What we know:
By secondary structure, the protein is α+β, with helices and mostly antiparallel strands. Helix content is 32%, strand content 16%.
Amino acid sequence: MGNSGSFKKGHVPWNKGLKGCFGARRTSFKKGNLPHNTRKIYSERLSKEGYIEIKVGLNRWISKHRYIWEEHYRKEVPKGKVVIFLDGNNRNFEIENLKLISRGALLILNRRYRHITKDKELMRSCVDLSELIISLKKKERNKNETT
């Protein structure tokens, strides 16, 4: 009949008991070894959204504008806050162009004032106005809860 192409009963495969493709040796991947294409700390890359990111640790990247803000003020960006570009140019990393705002204010900016992103002074006043709207809504909510 010849060779049917199937395994005979009781056949033991050649790679039984081996892990991996061809039984990688225990010393193939040593702890601490990094691939040759690993980026150095503080190297930059471009994200999918168009922002420049900086490598600050092993497999840890943060936005460059956030990194610059944190280095200048010597503290981390608080939870619930974001750093924005006042002139709308995400390549202008001057500290005067970076502003820390709440996510609620960012929501108002993106909904109401998204067309005012080129003028830095006008954007600064829109940020202040949106922060004021947020604080007024919080006071109104607290007032309604107490009554």
